[in-house]
Amino acid sequence: MTLASKRSLLKLAGLGALVATATLVGCGKKEEAPAPAPAAAPAEPPKPAPLKIAFAYVGPVGDGGWTFAHDNARKAMQAEFGDRVETSFVESVPEAADAERVFRDMVSQGNKMIFGTTFGYMEPMMKVAADHKDVRFEHATGYKQAENMRTYDSRTYEGAYMAGVIAGKMTKSNTLGVVGSIPIPEVIRNINSFTLGAQSVNPRVKTRVVWVNEWFAPPKETEAAQSLINQGADVLFQNTDSSAVLQTAAKNGKLAFGWDSDMTAYAPDAHLASAIINWAPYYIKSVREVLDGGWTGGGNTWWGVKEGAIDLVSVSDKVPAETREQVEKIKAGLKDGSFVIWKGPITRQDGKPALAKDEVADDKWLSGIDFYVRGVEGKIPGK
Fold first, then answer.
1. pLDDT tens digit string along 225-244?
2. Greater confidence, 276 or 16?
């Protein structure tokens, strides 16, 4: 092959390579067509606004007793539901006409559920509930209901009875003292139950009562407790909201109980036990019903040891072991229904029968107690 022929072949080979490269480049452009844009993610539905819930308290949240227990339960409920609810409270709302103004203000702030936590709020809540059918109202310890208002309570008399068992064993003078708040059936029932518990282990005891006619009044509670001690009482009980009774007992070298909340820290040397209320189970149940659309008005809920609403806690080591065991048996019996506190024979202060032998009081009967049992001294105010 001549040199000219070789050059011709090289030119043809080079031309072929260029054509092949162009072809490949052309094919590459066709394969690199832009990919379709990704589909937009569906927009998340807006989060529902939280249920606004307001609480009206008769005392300050730091009372260490009744209001403190309600506020602890509010916090537990808030923790249970997180951002599904928004809670607020107004403390020290008097049981008077001003309560109606507070409830109306709560409604105006957009609250759709309102808890009133003392007996004296009943009439103001009824008025406001009638004007705001879209709001759910819950009233503690009352007895009037409406289509958008219902009542709830705790069987505080169960804690009072268990405390009485301890008091009956611990007293040396056989004189017990009770500082009473307001003479309504709830409080009278607690005084009687405390006395029945004490009598079950010590038939010789007698109970003296001093009324202060307020729920939270530490100076008056102190004065009443001191009066009882001066009358010979060496173990004190209360149906008031502060720790003043327990602290007064401590100053006098006497013994006493905490009420509504665990009051051990206020006077550990004088403290025998605390009869507490746990409102959290009811608040969680009630709010869940609203969130799930199952809340209905009317009716009353009355929970005790059985439902985890009432307990006797922090029993002192000063209490004999056999007495502590007896209290635990009573507690177990209240929980499973095998033990009944208000079962005859029970006699009134005037000697008339309150319940015949083996007769058991129903809730309607218990709700109307307006007398002292035998062993309680003095008169009920207004009777």
1. 999 999 999 999 999 999 99
2. 276
Expressed in angstroms, the distance from the first to the final Cα of the chain is 142
CB 183 within 8 A of CB 380: yes
d(CA 269, CA 135): 47
Report the amino acid identity of residue 61. V
Q: Which of 194, 215, 213 is nearest to 66 (CA)?
A: 215
8 Å CB contact between 381 and 213: yes
- DSSP symbol at 318: T
User: So what's the pLDDT on residue 39?
Assistant: 64
| Whole-angstrom distance, CA of residue 309 vs CA of residue 362 | 19
Q: What is the pTM of this model?
A: 0.88
- Burial class from Cβ neighbours inside 10 Å (0-12, 13-18, 19+) for residue 367 reads middle
Copy the structure tokens of residue 273.
């036990």
Of 165, 180, 193, the closest CA to residue 366 belongs to 193
Which residues 6+ apart lie within 8 Å of 355 measured at CB?
A: 342, 343, 344, 345, 346, 361
Structural domains of the chain, ranges and CATH numbers in brackets: 51-155+280-306 (3.40.50.2300), 156-277+308-367 (3.40.50.2300)
Kindly state the tokens that stand for 300.
Answer: 């009353």
Does residue 378 come out as left (phi exceeding 0), alpha (psi in the -120 to 50 range) or beta? left
